[in-house]
Amino acid sequence: MDDHPEGPRTLWTQVRDGLPLLPETVARGLELEQGRHPALTELREALGFDLDLDGVQNAARDVRLPREEPPTDELLTHFIDSMYCGIASSRLVRVVVSNDGLTAMRAQGSVRLRDGEMLSVLVLVDNQTERDLDFSARMAGGAESAAVEAGRVASVLVHSGETPIGTGEIDVQVECDSQKATQQIPIEVSASWTLSLQLLDDETGEPMPARVYLSDDLGAAWPADTKVRRDEHDNAFFHVESRFEATVSGEAKLIIARGMEYEPLELTVPAPSSAEESATVRLRRWSHMSREGWWSGDVHVHLHYGGEYLLDPAHASLVQRGEDVNFMNMMVANQGSAFVHDHGYFEGRPHELSDAEHILRWGEEYRNDFYGHLCMYGITELVPPIYSGFRLSEHPHDLPANA
Fold first, then answer.
1. Taking the model in full, what pTM does it have?
2. Which residues of 291-305 are buried (b: 16+ CB within 10 A; e: fewer)?
3. Is 4 among the domain residues?
4. Domain range spanning residue 119?
5. Which of these three, 30, 64, 89, is where a domain ends?
6. Could you give the number of structural domains in the chain?
7. What pLDDT digit, counting tens, does each position of 123-154 carry?
C-alpha cells in the first residue's frame, strides 16, 4: 500500500500524529527514518502479537525534543533510533557492531509455531562504529541486505520458509563488516489442520459478515491476510465477510458475534483426523429494530488513530457490516498535532460501499485541544478549521485557553 494517503505507518509518523511539532521537525524526522526499517504494518503482519511496542513509548518519553525550535540532527536521530531499540519480541535478533566485533542476541525461550507456518524474524543492527556499514541477514527462506550509517540502527525482516513438526532450532545468520554471527532460535512446531467456516443468517440463510474470536492450543489464531486486533480484555478478534479459513493446532474454540441484535455463538471444533474440517454456523437474530423504525448508528468512528495498520474504506465497510451498524460516521480529524487523518476519504455523500441497510459516510470531528470536540455528520463539505487550540499548528486559536 505504497500509495496509501496515510502511509507508511512508522514509529515517527505515530509521533507526528500525536505531538505538536514544527513542520521542519516533522519533515526532517521522516528523512532520518526513511528506508531504515520495515513499516509498522509489515512488522505487525509478520510478527503478529509477538511485537511489543511498550518499550517504544518509554524510549520516546526518555528523550526530550524541543518544541519551539528544530532539534539538532543528532538529537532527532537519537530519538528515532531509541524508539526502534525499544521494540521487543521473541522473534527479534539484536546485532551490535562495534570496534570489538559483532554480537548477536535475542530474548530467551522458544517460539511456538503451527505446522507449515513461516517464522519471520526482525534483525536489528546497532552500528556503534564510526563507519557506514552494509549488512545482510539470512534464513532458510532467503536473505535481506541493508545499509546502516555510523552510530545509527537499521533493521530488516527475514523468513524461514515452512517449518516441520517437532522441536528444533532455526539459524539466523548475520554478516557485517566482514564479520559473521549465527543466532539460533529454538522452535516448537505443532501439528495443524485447516478450519473452514461459513457464516449464515439463521432466518434468511444468507451469507453474513461477523466478528470472530478464534483460539487453539497455541493461543490466538486468525486467517492469513487478516487485520487482527485485541479488545479491552486482551482477546484477539477479526472480522470476516462470511467464509474464512484458518490454520489451527489442536482444538479450535470460537466465539462469533454480530452487533447487539444477534445472539453470540460459542462453539468448539475438535481436531479432526483429516487435514481439514468444514462447518456452517448460523447466527440467530433475536431483535430487528429497523423493522420498527429504529436504526443503529455510530457517529464517532476513526479509521486511523494510532495503531500499526493502514486501512481503507473497504475495511471500514467490513467492520460496519460485521457489527451490523446501520449508519457509521467516519471522522476526518486531527489527533494531537496539525496532521489531519483521512482527509482524502471525505466525499460529502455516502460512500459507494454503502448498501440499503448500511450507510458508510465520512464526516468531520472539530477538535479543540481544551474546550472539547464536535462531531458533524451529513455535511456536504468540510467545515474549517478542522481543529484549533493546538500548539505549533496552522490553527493555534484559543491558545492559551481563556479558562
1. 0.93
2. eeeeebeeeebbbbe
3. yes
4. 94-190
5. 89
6. 4
7. 999 999 999 999 999 999 899 999 999 999 99
